[in-house]
Amino acid sequence: MPATNNSYQSSIASLENPLPGDLLPITGNSKGPQTDVSSVTSYYDPNIGRPYTDTASLAVQQQVKNYLFEVGGIYNASHGLLVCDPLNGNLTGDQVDEPSPNAWYAANTPTFDSTGKPSATLAGNTAVPNPFLGAPFITNSTGTNKTINASQLLNPNPLVSSLRLRHGNGAYYYYALQTKVERRFTNGFSVIQSFTWSKTISENNYFGPQAVGIRIDKRLAPATPNSANSPGGDQRFHYTLTPVYQLPFGKGKRFAGNSGTLLNELIGGYEVTGQYNFLSGTPLVLPTNTSFFEGGNPSLGSKKSGTQWFDTSKFAMFPKSNTPTTGTGGTASYPTWTGVQNMPGANYAGGTTTNGVYQDFATWHTYNQTTFGNIRYPYTTNIDAGIRKSFVIAPKTKLQLRLDIFNGGFNNEVQRQLR
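^ that's the sequence the OP posted. Answer follows.
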């Protein structure tokens, strides 16, 4: 049934009228091999195989009086995962309907007029009459749009603008050192302290334009939506401290141990608890392949601050069409390591209105490292606390009142720097 008419921003159905557009007619096999031609934009490898995980762990425990000490390690390697978009967790796949590398370069290489000014539209983005307009059985926009981009006609199957084959070719690797110290509950007090050092490596997103070769990036895992295909980002350190303490007041306790029923109900039965949690930030995904990047490690080390989280001087944005040639921020003032002065069209004297290189980046592709172990989102530290008061209302029945305080925060200053 048609559930929406605005890309799922809202439903057109209601309880009063659950089928406002009626049911879509069942075509059955009446169209034969022409059924829903061009409607499929992705499909799964029929021999995709099964995802599997290799896991190994070892731990040693030793109890000393009331304390339990534990040291261990774990290794986890997951294979056969579907590749997903690192930003939103959506499944992607091999772009199998790409033109040949030569055709792709021709479609995305800029052209220039007699003055050296680049054409405002790349050859591949030029709108041409749609040869499939009104063709029977074609259900997507290719069958209804009057024009399409010329680059679509270069695809092996020009009826679809994107066709992805989903393989089980992604992987995640995790290994960690895990420690724990636990004080068993004695004399009204217990505490659990744990510390983990870990590393998570993802091999789960495509790297560079697929028209010139499919490559999957292997890197420190950035923060990704939590799903089976995106287990989570690399967080190097994780420390937790969780104490529980029964206050020593009331009947049978150190203070006022002989108190009567009324006094005991007033001062006894209190317990305080808390949790301290520290977690390292996940690696930033730096624009090392979508902007000019000098190379090296852009970390500032101990010199980083809330206004300068990494060395932004190692990056320069690609010029836009309105980026001037001269003046402040013009292409002439770009660092020499960008090479912008030697790009096709760099000699065009655009002055303060435009430049001759802004079309040179459709074929730009590098395989620079995108995450660095010492450039991460800010760590998170959290303290929660609680107090409990227990009342005995029957020999085997208690009533407990609880008051909990939660503390947390978020810092998005790093996102501003990335923009």
